[in-house]
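A protein record pairs a chain with a discrete description of its three-dimensional fold. The following entry can be read in just this way.
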Amino acid sequence: MDTKEQTKTGLLAGEVLRRQDAQRLILEGLEQIGARLDGLPRREVIILMRQVITWGVEALEKREYTKNFREVGWESIEARAHCRAATRRDLRYCLRKMLKQEGVGELPLRSMSTVDCRRILQEAFGHSSSLYIKGRAVLSSIFSYGVKQELCDSNPVSRIDVPKIHEAKKAPLSPQDVERLKATAEQPEHRAMRFSLHLMLYGGVRPTEVSRLQKNDINWETRQLIIRPATSKTGGGRVIPLRKMEEWQPEDCCIPRNWKKRWRKLREDAGFTSWVPDACRHTFASYHAAYYRNLPDLQFEMGHRDLSLLRSRYLMPVLKKDAERFWHLHT
């Protein structure tokens, strides 16, 4: 006797359901269908009931269908193959941190709750607010992918608050520090980095953005630099004027290979034993604000959506004489 016949026999024998249980379930089903039964002959009522049972089983199977967190996590990253290499690297890093927790990888995605997600984030990234925010974004993207693939019904991460980060403003480099960097960039072994340093100091271009620049990003006719969305850290493009480069030639403007290594060596040879990330960008913002006194233009060049980030994170008070010295340093 096959499985289906055994099930039927068990039902009829009262092993699973008693007769009154079956009658009660039929009555509840008819009540749920309601007005749809009005005027239908017995045969059509039976057909409709069979359809309801079939559709209900299909819905139950669909609702129970899922995959474990490890599978869905890696699938969601593969689905973002169009993203930049650095973005995919961050996704893989965060996922591996979460999967290091015992048993997390085997959790069925559909059964994971907000409590589970909060615990995963706290254990993997609780030591750093910035990493917690990044990890939360990655975990949320995994569940968003799962919802689209019908592997879960909702995104439990959406109910987890994003922690606020109170970042201290970073002091700009002093004019003396800028002079040291520029003098070092004039040395033969560092001259290939001269253009890169200039863009960071006098254009506020991020180091990662400088390292991704191509020759066609420079417009010599208009003296402008184009930061394309694929180059930008935030994915938004912007146009920056090439200041203090009147005597420069196109052949002076190149981005060398092994850029990160060269940039680190330039700082070391200039005497910097420690370095604040984006120090040149913060220097540009503070001296630009003090000298030009045009925050809307500065906001546009920095690529910010509004002035709030510029005011809260970048602008430090500097003396007028230091701002003037910065903008008139020999180039």
